[in-house]
């Protein structure tokens, strides 16, 4: 199923130029590119990078390399990822919208398999993920279908064969239906991307440069196949690092399995203090404090460009709060799930209130949100919430607006406050009536979207969302969902539609772009081809590295291996390569994780644990150390500590609702 790759080229289908990386990988790759190009006019040529986050640094590195080579009239190339390049290719037919595709499949599953609600949406998403994996790894032709079925029979034997056969038929038949009709409109999104890549290959003429950050194989299959096809029509050069930094000796020995040199000799070659710091904590607060302590120390030592990799988003957010309190602001590259913002929480709390006759706890949470009743003074809104809370407690109410109204009639409230409370209750009733979820009627998606819009206007939530960065993104998502709904077939009950909204919020990322700083919060993929003075991996435990498979409900590891698709072993190899780049390209690396919160085991990610064990065996001491909170504990944080500021950090900006 996969391409025939030249193992001598590190997994690439074309020869690879190994570039001695030293301490500045972007500069080394830029210099090698200019020297091999043999021309100052790179306009029209394309440089593929793993992440667009690498593009600004690479452009700067090309400028520095051109200055060193006395090339004053350099015409730079186009620097882009493969996906972004493919997205520029026009297709003759429309491409199905992802959420429309999801809704269509959910409707089919509900009618045929009886899958409903959150479970049905989960199965639909997993099926689509499995189909996309097959689209990336195979061709939809008859030969490929037959090969798939043979691979399935080989992958599953014995007792699980009957169940596996049903799963395989479901995935394969769905995949074939989605990708087999090339003349259908609209096109399946994953298949459309393959068509775009084929058009790029058909138009290949200019030289193509591929910059790789990994020091060994683990080349993504779609990229390898594209490079092989492009190389048949135009020159392709792959530039990859050949790490020559002494402190990588231990990592190379442990992760590559190369035992030609005794491990102890490799350990002796490690430069003093060059190994990563491994820091484990026993609580969320202790881990956040450890991250903040490392960053403060680096800033005090003059380190300017620092990256925090948010593997554990909860710990990362807590560490960010500690650092910002000390005046160290953090630019947000990674972002957060939109569902975790207070704006999204207010929206979902409203849907819960309207569908369950306003449970008292949910109602108070909603009224205390700054997003509802945006035209009401905050002090008055808090007074209204307090009055409702007191009345409900006095009458032992757990919910229901009608019961609350009767209790308010007998309550001792000031006239102005009573009028405000009644105004709020009237608006809540109007908003709930717009949604009308209690009848259990199934409606088309666009009908639900129209009703939601009217209900948000009734309680002032629409205006509140528009006045906040994350809220504006929630509003934009709702508008996009309303547009998608006009094309999506089928009818949904309220609970199903609510789960559709929740899933969309979960898939979206919120980034607060108003803070600019040399300290950035990012993700592991965005570190490719970049260099920092220091990097902290936050939450590097075994549950997060290398992470779950792409389609956990379908295409198990045995079947993926039989089909030639990326499996756990290949994901592990890719992770080790990423970690090698992390250690080689950056000046200092720290790793944090919680190893036993609430009495549950939570070990360090296997590659890093292996590195720690090897260091302990060969050098007599491990790399890991425990970080504990100061003796005064969390309460000691009530007094702000003096801390150096990372220049040129901007003054504190409003952080929005993330």
Main traits of this protein?
disordered N terminus, 9% strand, 658 residues, seven-stranded parallel sheet, five-stranded parallel sheet, globular, alpha/beta
Task: Tell me briefly what this model is.
By secondary structure, the chain is an alpha/beta fold. Helices cover 50% and strands 9% of the residues.
Provide a descriptive summary of the structure in words.
With 658 residues, the chain is an alpha/beta fold. A seven-stranded parallel sheet has the order 8-13-7-14-15-6-16, covered by helices on one side. A five-stranded parallel sheet has the order 1-5-4-2-3, sandwiched between helices. The longest helix is centred in the first third of the chain and has 21 residues, at 117-137. It starts with 15 loop residues before the first strand and ends in a 32-residue tail after the last strand.
Largest sheet: 7 strands, parallel
Which runs of at least 5 residues are low in confidence (pLDDT < 50)? 1-8, 634-658
Principal-axes shape call:
globular
Structural class: alpha/beta
Name the strands of the widest sheet in spatial order: 8-13-7-14-15-6-16
What separation lies between the terminal Cα atoms? 44 Å
How many whole angstroms does the radius of gyration measure? 28 Å
> Overall pLDDT, averaged?
83
Helix content: 40-55%
**Proportion of residues in extended strands:** 5-15%
- What's the total count of β strands? 16
Number of helices: 25
Secondary-structure map:
Layout: E1 16-20, H1 25-37, E2 46-48, H2 55-68, E3 78-80, H3 82-87, H4 98-113, H5 117-137, H6 142-155, H7 161-179, H8 189-202, E4 208-211, H9 221-231, E5 236-242, H10 249-256, H11 263-268, E6 277-281, H12 284-300, E7 306-310, H13 313-325, E8 331-332, E9 336-337, H14 342-355, H15 360-367, H16 378-394, H17 401-409, H18 415-435, E10 443-444, H19 445-458, H20 461-466, H21 469-485, E11 491-492, H22 494-507, E12 509-510, E13 519-522, E14 534-538, H23 557-562, H24 568-585, E15 589-594, H25 606-619, E16 624-626
Parallel strand pairs: 1-5, 2-3, 2-4, 4-5, 6-15, 6-16, 7-13, 7-14, 8-13, 14-15
Antiparallel strand pairs: 9-12, 10-11
Helix pairs in contact: 1-2, 4-5, 5-7, 6-7, 10-25, 12-13, 14-15, 14-22, 16-18, 18-19, 19-21
């Amino acid at each position: 199923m996969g391409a025939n790759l030249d193992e001598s080229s590190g997994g690439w289908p074309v020869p690879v130029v190994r570039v001695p990386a030293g301490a500045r990988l972007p500069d080394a790759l830029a210099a090698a590119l200019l020297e091999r190009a043999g021309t100052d006019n790179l306009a029209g040529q394309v440089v593929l990078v793993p992440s667009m986050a690498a593009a600004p640094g690479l452009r700067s590195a090309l400028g520095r390399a051109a200055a060193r080579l006395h090339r004053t009239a350099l015409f730079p190339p186009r620097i882009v990822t493969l996906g972004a390049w493919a997205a520029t290719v026009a297709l003759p037919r429309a491409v199905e919208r992802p959420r429309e595709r999801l809704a269509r499949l959910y409707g089919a599953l509900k009618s045929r398999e009886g899958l409903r609600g959150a479970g049905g949406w989960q199965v639909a998403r997993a099926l689509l993920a499995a189909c996309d994996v097959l689209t990336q790894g195979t061709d939809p032709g008859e030969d490929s279908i037959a090969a798939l079925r043979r691979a399935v029979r080989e992958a599953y034997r014995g007792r699980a064969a009957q169940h596996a056969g049903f799963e395989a038929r479901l995935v394969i038949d769905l995949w074939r239906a989605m990708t087999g009709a090339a003349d259908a409109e609209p096109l399946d999104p994953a298949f459309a991307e393959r068509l775009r890549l084929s058009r790029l290959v058909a138009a290949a003429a200019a030289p193509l440069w591929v910059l790789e950050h990994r020091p060994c194989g683990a080349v993504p299959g779609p990229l390898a196949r594209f490079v092989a096809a492009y190389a048949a029509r135009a020159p392709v050069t792959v530039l990859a690092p050949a790490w020559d930094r002494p402190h990588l000796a231990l990592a190379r020995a442990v992760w590559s399995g190369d035992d030609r040199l005794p491990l102890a000799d490799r350990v002796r070659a490690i430069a003093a203090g060059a190994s990563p710091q491994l820091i484990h904590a026993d609580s969320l607060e202790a881990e956040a404090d450890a991250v903040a302590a490392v960053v403060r120390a680096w800033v005090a030592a003059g380190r300017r460009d620092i990256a925090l990799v948010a593997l554990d988003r909860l710990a990362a957010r807590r560490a960010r709060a500690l650092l910002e309190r000390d005046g160290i602001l953090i630019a947000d590259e990674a972002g957060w799930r939109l569902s975790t913002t207070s704006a999204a929480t207010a929206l979902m709390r409203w849907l819960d209130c309207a569908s369950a006759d306003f449970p008292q706890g949910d109602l108070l949470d909603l009224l205390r949100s700054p997003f509802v009743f945006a035209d009401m003074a905050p002090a008055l809104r808090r007074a209204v919430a307090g009055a409702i809370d007191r009345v409900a407690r006095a009458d032992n109410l757990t919910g229901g607006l009608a019961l609350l109204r009767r209790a308010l009639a007998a309550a001792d409230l000031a006239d102005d406050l009573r009028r405000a409370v009644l105004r709020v209750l009237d608006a809540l009733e109007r908003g709930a009536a717009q949604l009308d979820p209690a009848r259990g009627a199934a409606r088309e998606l666009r009908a639900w979207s129209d009703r939601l819009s009217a209900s948000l206007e009734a309680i002032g939530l629409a205006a509140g969302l528009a006045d906040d960065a994350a809220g504006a993104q929630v509003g934009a998502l709702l508008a996009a969902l309303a547009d998608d709904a006009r094309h999506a077939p089928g009818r949904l009950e309220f609970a199903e539609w609510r789960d559709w909204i929740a899933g969309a919020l979960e898939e979206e990322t919120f980034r607060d772009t108003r803070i600019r700083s040399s300290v950035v919060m990012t993700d592991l993929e965005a570190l490719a081809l970049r260099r920092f003075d220091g990097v902290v991996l936050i939450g590097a435990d075994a549950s997060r590295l290398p992470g779950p498979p792409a389609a956990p409900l379908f295409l198990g590891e045995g079947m993926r291996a039989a089909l030639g698709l990326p499996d756990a072993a290949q994901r592990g190899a890719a992770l080790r390569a990423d970690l090698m780049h992390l250690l080689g390209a950056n000046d200092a690396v720290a790793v944090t994780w919680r190893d036993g919160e609430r009495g549950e085991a939570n070990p360090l990610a296997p590659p890093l644990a292996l590195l720690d064990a090897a260091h302990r065996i060969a050098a007599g001491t491990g790399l890991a150390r425990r970080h504990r909170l100061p003796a005064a504990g969390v309460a000691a944080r009530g007094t702000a500590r003096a801390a150096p500021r990372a220049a040129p950090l901007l003054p504190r900006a409003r952080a929005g609702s993330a």
